[in-house]
Amino acid sequence: MDQESIVYGCIKDSIQGVGYADRLRANRDAMLTLPRADSWPFLCQEMFAIPELGGLTRNYQTEVMHFGASYKAVEYEWSQWIEQFEALLSKMYWVSATVHLETELCGSHTFTWESNRNYHTPGSGDMNVQCQWSRESSLGN
Length: 141
What we know:
- 18% of the residues lie in helices and 32% in strands.
- With 141 residues, the protein is of the alpha+beta class.
- It has a 5-stranded antiparallel sheet with strand order 2-1-3-4-5, with no helix packed on it.
């Protein structure tokens, strides 16, 4: 049986203040630079809910850009996945980002990125990551 890994999460940005349309456009453009799924990259456009331009947002104070994908044992190549995700984050405006990794062998991991300032700006390199790990046991009590 193949080992399935599930990766999902969201990138959050504020919709408050001036420059929101430019921030949204920059974030959208960054996601559109990702390859298409048919080339089988770790990150691809199809796994993201890419925000639309124009019109009013339905969000209250935060733009939530969610994503998710199923992989075959991605935990063995996790450092490459993280590297590509951080490369995407480096091109975006965001307040925080969260990635959940669920694996059959290694349990569940939650990774959270935050900026040292109020929000990250493209190219600033200003990001800190934290990881939390949990594992459920299927053994009887």
